[in-house]
UniProtKB/TrEMBL annotation:
<dbReference type="Pfam" id="PF00155">
    <property type="entry name" value="Aminotran_1_2"/>
</dbReference>
<protein>
    <recommendedName>
        <fullName>Aspartate aminotransferase</fullName>
        <ecNumber>2.6.1.1</ecNumber>
    </recommendedName>
</protein>
<dbReference type="InterPro" id="IPR004839">
    <property type="entry name" value="Aminotransferase_I/II_large"/>
</dbReference>
<dbReference type="GO" id="GO:0004069">
    <property type="term" value="F:L-aspartate:2-oxoglutarate aminotransferase activity"/>
</dbReference>
<keyword id="KW-0032">Aminotransferase</keyword>
<dbReference type="GO" id="GO:0030170">
    <property type="term" value="F:pyridoxal phosphate binding"/>
</dbReference>
<dbReference type="InterPro" id="IPR000796">
    <property type="entry name" value="Asp_trans"/>
</dbReference>
<comment type="similarity">
    <text>Belongs to the class-I pyridoxal-phosphate-dependent aminotransferase family.</text>
</comment>
<keyword id="KW-0663">Pyridoxal phosphate</keyword>
<comment type="subunit">
    <text>Homodimer.</text>
</comment>
<feature type="domain" description="Aminotransferase class I/classII large">
    <location>
        <begin position="30"/>
        <end position="413"/>
    </location>
</feature>
<dbReference type="GO" id="GO:0005829">
    <property type="term" value="C:cytosol"/>
</dbReference>
<keyword id="KW-0808">Transferase</keyword>
<dbReference type="InterPro" id="IPR015422">
    <property type="entry name" value="PyrdxlP-dep_Trfase_small"/>
</dbReference>
<dbReference type="InterPro" id="IPR015421">
    <property type="entry name" value="PyrdxlP-dep_Trfase_major"/>
</dbReference>
<dbReference type="InterPro" id="IPR004838">
    <property type="entry name" value="NHTrfase_class1_PyrdxlP-BS"/>
</dbReference>
<dbReference type="GO" id="GO:0006532">
    <property type="term" value="P:aspartate biosynthetic process"/>
</dbReference>
Amino acid sequence: MGVGLADVPVLPLDEAFALTAEFKADGCAQKVSLGAGVYRDEQGDPWVLPSVKKVRQQISLHQTPNLDHEYLPIQGSEPFLKLARDLILGESLSPKGNLTSIQTISGTGANHVGAQFLARHLHPKHVFISDPTWSNHHLIWTIAAPNVTRKTYPYYNAADRSLDFEGWVATLEREAVENDVVVLHACAHNPTGLDPTHAQWKFLAELFRRKKLFAFFDSAYQGFATGDLDLDAWAVRHFQEVLFGLEECPDHEEGPSGLCIAQSFAKNFGLYGERVGAFHLSLPPSTPTSGAYSQLLQLTRAEISNPPLFGARIVTTVLSNLELRSQWEQDLLEMASRVRNVRGLLRKEIEHRLGSGSWSHLESQTGMFSYTGLSEAQVLRLKNMHHVYLMRNGRASLSGVNESNVKYIAEAVSEVVSNEPE
Ligand SMILES: Cc1ncc(COP(=O)(O)O)c(C=O)c1O
Protein backbone atom coordinates (compact mmCIF):
# COMPACT_ATOMS: atom_id res chain seq x y z
CA MET A 1 0.00 0.00 0.00
CA GLY A 2 1.36 3.43 -0.93
CA VAL A 3 2.52 5.74 1.81
CA GLY A 4 2.23 9.50 1.55
CA LEU A 5 -0.10 11.98 0.04
CA ALA A 6 0.35 11.25 -3.66
CA ASP A 7 -3.13 9.77 -4.00
CA VAL A 8 -5.03 12.55 -2.29
CA PRO A 9 -7.96 13.19 -4.61
CA VAL A 10 -8.17 16.58 -6.28
CA LEU A 11 -11.42 18.35 -5.42
CA PRO A 12 -13.24 20.76 -7.72
CA LEU A 13 -12.67 24.44 -6.93
CA ASP A 14 -15.29 26.29 -4.91
CA GLU A 15 -17.68 27.64 -7.53
CA ALA A 16 -18.07 31.18 -6.17
CA PHE A 17 -14.35 31.81 -5.76
CA ALA A 18 -13.45 30.09 -9.07
CA LEU A 19 -15.98 32.32 -10.85
CA THR A 20 -14.43 35.46 -9.35
CA ALA A 21 -10.97 34.32 -10.52
CA GLU A 22 -12.32 33.67 -14.03
CA PHE A 23 -13.94 37.08 -14.07
CA LYS A 24 -10.72 38.80 -13.01
CA ALA A 25 -8.80 37.03 -15.78
CA ASP A 26 -11.35 38.05 -18.45
CA GLY A 27 -9.92 40.91 -20.53
CA CYS A 28 -13.25 42.03 -22.06
CA ALA A 29 -14.01 45.67 -21.21
CA GLN A 30 -17.75 45.04 -20.96
CA LYS A 31 -17.51 42.09 -18.55
CA VAL A 32 -20.00 42.08 -15.68
CA SER A 33 -19.75 40.17 -12.40
CA LEU A 34 -23.05 39.03 -10.95
CA GLY A 35 -21.37 36.14 -9.16
CA ALA A 36 -19.84 37.14 -5.84
CA GLY A 37 -22.14 37.98 -2.94
CA VAL A 38 -20.54 41.34 -2.28
CA TYR A 39 -21.92 44.87 -2.54
CA ARG A 40 -20.71 47.07 -5.39
CA ASP A 41 -21.47 50.77 -5.77
CA GLU A 42 -22.98 52.50 -8.81
CA GLN A 43 -19.54 52.49 -10.48
CA GLY A 44 -19.15 48.74 -9.87
CA ASP A 45 -16.48 49.27 -7.20
CA PRO A 46 -16.17 47.94 -3.64
CA TRP A 47 -17.80 50.36 -1.21
CA VAL A 48 -16.23 51.25 2.11
CA LEU A 49 -19.19 52.44 4.15
CA PRO A 50 -18.91 56.11 5.19
CA SER A 51 -19.56 55.10 8.83
CA VAL A 52 -16.66 52.61 8.62
CA LYS A 53 -14.40 55.22 6.97
CA LYS A 54 -15.01 57.58 9.88
CA VAL A 55 -14.01 54.93 12.40
CA ARG A 56 -10.91 54.09 10.42
CA GLN A 57 -9.88 57.71 10.68
CA GLN A 58 -10.57 57.70 14.41
CA ILE A 59 -8.51 54.60 15.09
CA SER A 60 -5.61 55.50 12.83
CA LEU A 61 -2.12 55.38 14.29
CA HIS A 62 -2.02 59.13 14.13
CA GLN A 63 -5.22 59.66 16.14
CA THR A 64 -4.73 56.86 18.66
CA PRO A 65 -0.99 56.18 18.97
CA ASN A 66 -1.49 54.13 22.14
CA LEU A 67 -3.94 51.65 20.67
CA ASP A 68 -2.36 48.22 21.03
CA HIS A 69 -2.67 44.94 19.15
CA GLU A 70 -2.89 42.53 22.06
CA TYR A 71 -4.81 39.23 21.92
CA LEU A 72 -8.51 39.33 22.61
CA PRO A 73 -9.77 36.80 25.19
CA ILE A 74 -10.81 33.42 23.73
CA GLN A 75 -14.47 34.43 23.63
CA GLY A 76 -13.62 37.69 21.87
CA SER A 77 -14.44 41.25 22.80
CA GLU A 78 -17.16 41.45 25.49
CA PRO A 79 -18.40 44.94 24.46
CA PHE A 80 -18.63 43.71 20.86
CA LEU A 81 -20.58 40.60 21.90
CA LYS A 82 -23.12 42.59 23.91
CA LEU A 83 -23.72 45.02 21.04
CA ALA A 84 -23.95 42.16 18.54
CA ARG A 85 -26.52 40.34 20.72
CA ASP A 86 -28.58 43.49 21.18
CA LEU A 87 -28.53 44.11 17.46
CA ILE A 88 -29.98 40.76 16.51
CA LEU A 89 -32.32 40.21 19.47
CA GLY A 90 -33.27 43.80 20.20
CA GLU A 91 -32.41 45.77 23.29
CA SER A 92 -35.59 44.71 25.07
CA LEU A 93 -35.36 40.95 24.43
CA SER A 94 -31.63 40.37 24.59
CA PRO A 95 -31.11 41.09 28.32
CA LYS A 96 -34.02 38.83 29.28
CA GLY A 97 -32.77 35.77 27.44
CA ASN A 98 -30.62 32.99 28.81
CA LEU A 99 -27.81 33.53 26.36
CA THR A 100 -24.18 32.82 25.82
CA SER A 101 -22.06 34.26 22.99
CA ILE A 102 -18.63 34.00 21.44
CA GLN A 103 -16.94 35.99 18.70
CA THR A 104 -16.26 34.05 15.49
CA ILE A 105 -14.52 34.20 12.14
CA SER A 106 -17.46 35.95 10.47
CA GLY A 107 -20.66 34.07 9.65
CA THR A 108 -18.84 31.05 8.28
CA GLY A 109 -16.97 30.55 11.56
CA ALA A 110 -20.20 30.93 13.51
CA ASN A 111 -21.92 28.29 11.37
CA HIS A 112 -18.91 26.03 11.79
CA VAL A 113 -18.50 26.29 15.56
CA GLY A 114 -22.29 25.96 15.96
CA ALA A 115 -22.37 22.76 13.90
CA GLN A 116 -19.41 21.32 15.84
CA PHE A 117 -20.92 22.20 19.20
CA LEU A 118 -24.39 20.85 18.42
CA ALA A 119 -23.05 17.63 16.91
CA ARG A 120 -21.06 16.96 20.09
CA HIS A 121 -23.53 18.01 22.73
CA LEU A 122 -27.08 18.02 21.34
CA HIS A 123 -26.54 14.86 19.25
CA PRO A 124 -29.25 15.59 16.70
CA LYS A 125 -30.19 12.71 14.44
CA HIS A 126 -30.56 15.06 11.46
CA VAL A 127 -29.79 18.54 10.30
CA PHE A 128 -32.29 19.97 7.82
CA ILE A 129 -30.98 22.44 5.24
CA SER A 130 -33.10 24.33 2.72
CA ASP A 131 -33.03 23.21 -0.91
CA PRO A 132 -31.48 25.29 -2.39
CA THR A 133 -29.16 27.05 0.06
CA TRP A 134 -25.79 28.77 0.44
CA SER A 135 -23.59 25.86 -0.66
CA ASN A 136 -21.26 26.20 2.32
CA HIS A 137 -24.00 24.97 4.66
CA HIS A 138 -23.58 21.47 3.25
CA LEU A 139 -19.81 21.62 3.38
CA ILE A 140 -19.74 22.95 6.94
CA TRP A 141 -22.07 20.29 8.28
CA THR A 142 -20.24 17.53 6.37
CA ILE A 143 -16.89 18.54 7.83
CA ALA A 144 -17.83 19.85 11.28
CA ALA A 145 -20.56 17.34 12.09
CA PRO A 146 -19.93 14.12 10.13
CA ASN A 147 -22.07 12.07 12.55
CA VAL A 148 -25.22 14.10 11.84
CA THR A 149 -27.27 13.01 8.83
CA ARG A 150 -27.89 15.88 6.42
CA LYS A 151 -31.38 16.21 4.96
CA THR A 152 -32.95 18.93 2.88
CA TYR A 153 -36.34 20.58 3.08
CA PRO A 154 -37.95 21.87 -0.11
CA TYR A 155 -37.86 25.65 -0.31
CA TYR A 156 -38.50 26.67 -3.89
CA ASN A 157 -41.27 26.04 -6.41
CA ALA A 158 -39.58 26.45 -9.78
CA ALA A 159 -42.91 26.41 -11.64
CA ASP A 160 -44.13 29.70 -10.21
CA ARG A 161 -40.90 30.88 -8.53
CA SER A 162 -42.53 30.85 -5.11
CA LEU A 163 -41.65 29.63 -1.62
CA ASP A 164 -42.60 25.97 -1.17
CA PHE A 165 -43.94 26.50 2.32
CA GLU A 166 -46.25 23.49 2.23
CA GLY A 167 -43.44 21.18 1.14
CA TRP A 168 -41.17 22.58 3.85
CA VAL A 169 -43.72 22.08 6.63
CA ALA A 170 -44.75 18.63 5.37
CA THR A 171 -41.10 17.48 5.36
CA LEU A 172 -40.47 18.63 8.92
CA GLU A 173 -43.77 17.10 10.09
CA ARG A 174 -42.96 13.79 8.46
CA GLU A 175 -39.20 13.42 8.97
CA ALA A 176 -37.95 15.60 11.81
CA VAL A 177 -37.56 14.18 15.30
CA GLU A 178 -36.91 15.81 18.68
CA ASN A 179 -33.60 17.74 18.84
CA ASP A 180 -33.13 17.78 15.09
CA VAL A 181 -31.45 20.97 13.89
CA VAL A 182 -33.08 23.07 11.17
CA VAL A 183 -30.93 25.72 9.49
CA LEU A 184 -33.02 28.84 8.79
CA HIS A 185 -31.99 31.94 6.84
CA ALA A 186 -32.98 34.82 9.12
CA CYS A 187 -33.73 37.07 6.11
CA ALA A 188 -32.78 37.53 2.44
CA HIS A 189 -32.61 33.80 1.72
CA ASN A 190 -29.53 32.90 -0.28
CA PRO A 191 -29.94 32.11 -3.18
CA THR A 192 -33.69 32.51 -3.78
CA GLY A 193 -34.35 35.95 -2.24
CA LEU A 194 -37.64 34.50 -0.92
CA ASP A 195 -38.46 34.84 2.78
CA PRO A 196 -41.46 33.47 4.69
CA THR A 197 -44.16 35.96 5.67
CA HIS A 198 -44.63 36.82 9.36
CA ALA A 199 -47.64 34.48 9.45
CA GLN A 200 -45.51 31.65 8.04
CA TRP A 201 -42.71 32.30 10.56
CA LYS A 202 -45.33 32.19 13.34
CA PHE A 203 -46.58 28.86 12.06
CA LEU A 204 -43.03 27.51 11.95
CA ALA A 205 -42.23 28.70 15.48
CA GLU A 206 -45.25 26.77 16.80
CA LEU A 207 -44.15 23.68 14.86
CA PHE A 208 -40.63 23.96 16.30
CA ARG A 209 -42.02 24.28 19.80
CA ARG A 210 -44.39 21.35 19.42
CA LYS A 211 -41.85 19.03 17.79
CA LYS A 212 -38.93 20.31 19.95
CA LEU A 213 -36.78 21.19 16.95
CA PHE A 214 -33.64 23.25 17.30
CA ALA A 215 -33.65 26.43 15.16
CA PHE A 216 -30.24 27.39 13.77
CA PHE A 217 -30.62 30.93 12.43
CA ASP A 218 -28.05 32.04 9.90
CA SER A 219 -28.14 35.84 9.92
CA ALA A 220 -25.82 37.11 7.20
CA TYR A 221 -27.88 40.03 5.87
CA GLN A 222 -29.47 41.92 8.77
CA GLY A 223 -30.31 45.43 7.55
CA PHE A 224 -29.25 44.57 4.05
CA ALA A 225 -32.52 42.93 3.01
CA THR A 226 -34.97 45.72 3.70
CA GLY A 227 -32.73 48.48 5.03
CA ASP A 228 -34.53 48.05 8.39
CA LEU A 229 -32.52 46.26 11.09
CA ASP A 230 -35.56 45.34 13.19
CA LEU A 231 -37.60 44.02 10.31
CA ASP A 232 -34.72 41.82 9.16
CA ALA A 233 -34.40 40.38 12.69
CA TRP A 234 -38.13 39.80 13.13
CA ALA A 235 -38.09 36.02 12.65
CA VAL A 236 -35.23 35.46 15.12
CA ARG A 237 -36.88 37.61 17.77
CA HIS A 238 -40.23 35.93 17.26
CA PHE A 239 -38.72 32.46 17.72
CA GLN A 240 -36.88 33.65 20.81
CA GLU A 241 -40.13 34.87 22.34
CA VAL A 242 -42.24 31.88 21.41
CA LEU A 243 -39.75 29.14 22.21
CA PHE A 244 -38.61 30.35 25.57
CA GLY A 245 -41.81 31.47 27.12
CA LEU A 246 -40.97 35.15 27.03
CA GLU A 247 -44.39 35.27 25.46
CA GLU A 248 -47.28 33.74 27.49
CA CYS A 249 -47.35 30.02 26.81
CA PRO A 250 -50.88 28.80 27.65
CA ASP A 251 -50.19 25.10 27.99
CA HIS A 252 -46.80 25.48 29.73
CA GLU A 253 -45.50 22.85 27.40
CA GLU A 254 -41.77 22.41 27.29
CA GLY A 255 -40.23 23.66 24.04
CA PRO A 256 -36.96 22.85 22.28
CA SER A 257 -33.62 22.57 24.03
CA GLY A 258 -32.37 25.85 22.54
CA LEU A 259 -31.88 27.97 19.46
CA CYS A 260 -28.79 29.60 18.04
CA ILE A 261 -27.73 32.41 15.77
CA ALA A 262 -24.73 32.62 13.42
CA GLN A 263 -24.26 36.34 12.92
CA SER A 264 -22.13 37.91 10.20
CA PHE A 265 -21.02 41.53 9.87
CA ALA A 266 -19.47 40.97 6.44
CA LYS A 267 -22.29 42.32 4.29
CA ASN A 268 -24.01 44.87 6.50
CA PHE A 269 -20.71 46.60 7.40
CA GLY A 270 -18.89 45.83 4.14
CA LEU A 271 -16.20 44.18 6.31
CA TYR A 272 -15.92 41.03 4.19
CA GLY A 273 -12.21 40.38 4.62
CA GLU A 274 -12.05 41.38 8.29
CA ARG A 275 -14.06 38.31 9.34
CA VAL A 276 -16.28 39.77 12.06
CA GLY A 277 -19.03 37.54 13.45
CA ALA A 278 -20.63 36.03 16.51
CA PHE A 279 -22.30 32.83 17.62
CA HIS A 280 -25.15 33.18 20.12
CA LEU A 281 -26.72 30.25 21.91
CA SER A 282 -30.07 30.81 23.56
CA LEU A 283 -31.22 28.24 26.10
CA PRO A 284 -34.51 27.84 28.00
CA PRO A 285 -34.67 29.92 31.20
CA SER A 286 -34.02 26.93 33.48
CA THR A 287 -30.98 25.59 31.61
CA PRO A 288 -27.55 26.72 32.80
CA THR A 289 -25.27 28.11 30.09
CA SER A 290 -21.94 27.57 31.84
CA GLY A 291 -21.26 24.11 30.35
CA ALA A 292 -22.10 25.20 26.82
CA TYR A 293 -19.97 28.32 27.19
CA SER A 294 -16.94 26.38 28.37
CA GLN A 295 -17.27 23.96 25.44
CA LEU A 296 -17.55 26.83 22.94
CA LEU A 297 -14.39 28.32 24.44
CA GLN A 298 -12.56 25.03 24.03
CA LEU A 299 -13.63 24.63 20.39
CA THR A 300 -12.46 28.18 19.72
CA ARG A 301 -9.16 27.68 21.52
CA ALA A 302 -8.42 24.59 19.44
CA GLU A 303 -9.32 26.27 16.17
CA ILE A 304 -8.20 29.92 16.34
CA SER A 305 -7.17 30.58 19.97
CA ASN A 306 -8.88 33.96 19.81
CA PRO A 307 -10.72 35.95 17.16
CA PRO A 308 -9.40 38.91 15.16
CA LEU A 309 -9.50 42.38 16.64
CA PHE A 310 -9.65 45.01 13.93
CA GLY A 311 -13.12 44.43 12.47
CA ALA A 312 -14.68 43.92 15.90
CA ARG A 313 -13.17 47.24 16.96
CA ILE A 314 -14.85 48.97 14.00
CA VAL A 315 -18.26 47.38 14.64
CA THR A 316 -18.07 48.15 18.37
CA THR A 317 -17.20 51.79 17.73
CA VAL A 318 -20.04 52.26 15.24
CA LEU A 319 -22.70 50.51 17.31
CA SER A 320 -21.82 52.28 20.54
CA ASN A 321 -21.81 55.82 19.16
CA LEU A 322 -25.18 57.43 18.35
CA GLU A 323 -23.89 59.56 15.52
CA LEU A 324 -21.91 56.79 13.84
CA ARG A 325 -24.75 54.36 14.28
CA SER A 326 -27.18 56.67 12.60
CA GLN A 327 -24.70 57.15 9.73
CA TRP A 328 -24.42 53.35 9.47
CA GLU A 329 -28.20 52.97 9.30
CA GLN A 330 -28.15 55.47 6.42
CA ASP A 331 -25.40 53.46 4.75
CA LEU A 332 -27.49 50.30 5.04
CA LEU A 333 -30.47 52.05 3.55
CA GLU A 334 -28.35 53.27 0.68
CA MET A 335 -27.14 49.75 -0.14
CA ALA A 336 -30.60 48.20 0.17
CA SER A 337 -32.23 50.97 -1.87
CA ARG A 338 -29.67 50.83 -4.67
CA VAL A 339 -30.17 47.09 -5.06
CA ARG A 340 -33.96 47.54 -4.96
CA ASN A 341 -33.70 50.21 -7.62
CA VAL A 342 -31.61 48.12 -10.04
CA ARG A 343 -34.06 45.23 -9.59
CA GLY A 344 -36.75 47.43 -11.14
CA LEU A 345 -34.47 48.76 -13.88
CA LEU A 346 -33.28 45.32 -14.93
CA ARG A 347 -36.81 43.94 -14.99
CA LYS A 348 -38.01 46.80 -17.19
CA GLU A 349 -35.11 46.46 -19.63
CA ILE A 350 -35.46 42.67 -19.98
CA GLU A 351 -39.25 42.72 -20.36
CA HIS A 352 -38.99 45.51 -22.91
CA ARG A 353 -36.57 43.47 -25.04
CA LEU A 354 -38.30 40.10 -24.73
CA GLY A 355 -41.78 41.49 -25.32
CA SER A 356 -43.44 38.59 -23.50
CA GLY A 357 -43.07 36.77 -20.17
CA SER A 358 -42.85 38.31 -16.74
CA TRP A 359 -39.61 39.08 -14.91
CA SER A 360 -41.49 40.39 -11.88
CA HIS A 361 -39.53 37.99 -9.66
CA LEU A 362 -36.52 40.28 -10.06
CA GLU A 363 -38.45 42.85 -8.05
CA SER A 364 -40.37 40.63 -5.65
CA GLN A 365 -37.30 38.77 -4.37
CA THR A 366 -35.39 40.45 -1.57
CA GLY A 367 -31.76 41.02 -0.55
CA MET A 368 -28.60 40.88 -2.61
CA PHE A 369 -29.59 37.99 -4.88
CA SER A 370 -32.05 37.08 -7.56
CA TYR A 371 -32.79 33.50 -8.43
CA THR A 372 -33.24 34.38 -12.08
CA GLY A 373 -34.65 31.09 -13.35
CA LEU A 374 -31.94 30.96 -16.05
CA SER A 375 -30.83 27.40 -16.81
CA GLU A 376 -27.25 26.19 -16.51
CA ALA A 377 -26.89 26.24 -20.32
CA GLN A 378 -28.13 29.83 -20.42
CA VAL A 379 -25.73 30.85 -17.64
CA LEU A 380 -22.84 29.30 -19.59
CA ARG A 381 -23.81 31.13 -22.76
CA LEU A 382 -24.06 34.40 -20.82
CA LYS A 383 -20.50 33.93 -19.67
CA ASN A 384 -18.98 32.60 -22.89
CA MET A 385 -20.72 34.92 -25.35
CA HIS A 386 -21.38 38.03 -23.29
CA HIS A 387 -18.86 37.99 -20.41
CA VAL A 388 -21.68 38.19 -17.85
CA TYR A 389 -20.84 35.96 -14.87
CA LEU A 390 -23.35 34.37 -12.51
CA MET A 391 -23.65 31.16 -10.52
CA ARG A 392 -24.54 27.94 -12.37
CA ASN A 393 -27.86 27.69 -10.53
CA GLY A 394 -28.95 31.02 -12.05
CA ARG A 395 -28.29 33.10 -8.93
CA ALA A 396 -27.34 36.66 -9.77
CA SER A 397 -25.84 39.08 -7.28
CA LEU A 398 -27.69 42.22 -8.26
CA SER A 399 -25.30 44.70 -6.72
CA GLY A 400 -23.19 44.14 -9.88
CA VAL A 401 -25.94 45.89 -11.88
CA ASN A 402 -25.81 49.66 -12.33
CA GLU A 403 -27.22 52.30 -14.65
CA SER A 404 -24.25 52.07 -17.00
CA ASN A 405 -24.39 48.29 -17.55
CA VAL A 406 -28.09 47.47 -17.10
CA LYS A 407 -28.90 47.73 -20.81
CA TYR A 408 -25.92 45.56 -21.72
CA ILE A 409 -26.97 42.89 -19.19
CA ALA A 410 -30.61 43.00 -20.35
CA GLU A 411 -29.49 42.64 -23.98
CA ALA A 412 -27.33 39.64 -23.06
CA VAL A 413 -30.08 37.97 -21.01
CA SER A 414 -32.63 38.49 -23.79
CA GLU A 415 -30.25 37.00 -26.33
CA VAL A 416 -29.66 33.82 -24.32
CA VAL A 417 -33.32 33.43 -23.39
CA SER A 418 -34.29 33.73 -27.06
CA ASN A 419 -31.52 31.54 -28.47
CA GLU A 420 -30.65 28.97 -25.83
CA PRO A 421 -33.39 26.50 -24.93
CA GLU A 422 -33.58 25.95 -21.15
C1 LIG B 1 -26.47 32.52 3.94
C2 LIG B 1 -25.08 32.91 4.30
N1 LIG B 1 -24.61 32.57 5.50
C3 LIG B 1 -23.38 32.89 5.88
C4 LIG B 1 -22.54 33.59 5.05
C5 LIG B 1 -21.20 33.86 5.65
O1 LIG B 1 -20.46 34.87 5.19
P1 LIG B 1 -19.18 35.37 5.98
O2 LIG B 1 -18.43 34.18 6.45
O3 LIG B 1 -18.45 36.16 4.97
O4 LIG B 1 -19.70 36.18 7.11
C6 LIG B 1 -22.97 33.96 3.77
C7 LIG B 1 -22.10 34.64 2.82
O5 LIG B 1 -22.26 34.67 1.63
C8 LIG B 1 -24.29 33.63 3.39
O6 LIG B 1 -24.79 33.97 2.21
